[in-house]
Amino acid sequence: MRLAPLRRKDIARCVEIEKQLFAGDDPWSARAFQSELDAGNYYLGAYGEEGELIGYAGLATAGRPGEFESSVHTIGVEREHQGRGVGTALLRALLEKADELNAPVFLEVRTDNDRALELYARHGFSRIGLRKRYYQPSGADAYTMMRPARSAQEVG
């Protein structure tokens, strides 16, 4: 597996994976992925041995130098490739980008997604809030989680 900037030609595959993973909620559309790339957000694809897209992840950053904040907008890994380190590699790459900017990182995750909760906890995230009925149309709740900026981690 290799990580590389997400290619626009892979957006249709991202939408397929979204529908597989988030069928009970509101999977992202092709337009949503296009908007994220148009906004200049940091998106990576995880590509298998044959060059096929098997996962993706995106990080948005707002603010100015010294005051940046980042948000993980999405991480998705095709079901048959889950549990093989793809999600971990994608998350670590997003966190490296946030660390370059010395930005804290925020995200929302379903309260019942134990695998993701464990992954985020292993990478320094803590729960800072609860968003009731965040995911629609399922009405599932989400935790808001945060990982401090690199400089805050070094001080603490």
Write the layout of secondary structure elements.
Layout: E1 2-5, H1 11-21, H2 30-38, E2 42-47, E3 53-62, E4 69-77, H3 86-100, E5 105-110, H4 114-122, E6 126-131, E7 142-147, H5 150-155
Parallel strand pairs: 4-5
Antiparallel strand pairs: 1-2, 2-3, 3-4, 5-7, 6-7
Pfam family, one: Acetyltransf_1
Organism: Amycolatopsis cynarae
EC number: 2.3.1.266
Question: Which features would summarize this protein structure in a list?
Answer:
156 residues, alpha+beta, Aminopeptidase, 7-stranded mixed beta sheet, 5 helices, 7 strands, 30% strand, globular, Acyl_CoA_acyltransferase, ribonucleoprotein, transferase
What's the gist of this structure?
The chain has helices at 11-21, 30-38, 86-100, 114-122, 150-155, and strands at residues 2-5, 42-47, 53-62, 69-77, 105-110, 126-131, 142-147. By secondary structure, the protein is an alpha+beta fold. Strand 2 and strand 3 (53-62) form a beta hairpin.
